[in-house]
Design a protein that fits this description.
Layout: H1 6-20, E1 25-28, E2 37-41, E3 44-54, E4 57-64, H2 74-79
Pfam families: DUF3126 (PF11324)
Organism: Gluconacetobacter aggeris
Protein name: DUF3126 family protein
Length: about 80
């Protein structure tokens, strides 16, 4: 995993806000070296972004974690159909 510059983090934030339609999304630098860059919405961490560099090409992978306890009740999803 490669570290990200402050410029990359800022550019990722702009891109993710646009792609996900969430102006309250933030991409936060790690508190110390070796930790992941975190993605949060309204201050709640929802995932991480990892940078990969292979043969001169750079890509970013967004990993979002959703806990089962955060999902709506099963009956609520059936009512929305």
């Amino acid at each position: 995993m490669s570290s990200m510059s402050a410029s990359e983090i800022a550019r990722l934030q702009v891109c993710l806000r646009r792609l996900l339609g969430s102006p309250e999304l933030t991409v936060n630098p790690p508190p110390r070296a070796g930790l992941s860059v975190e993605v949060a919405v309204k201050g709640e961490i929802i995932g991480t972004v990892h940078r990969d560099e292979d043969e001169g090409e750079i890509s970013y992978a967004l990993h979002i974690t959703i806990l089962e306890e955060d999902l709506p009740a099963e009956t609520a999803t059936r009512a929305g159909r």
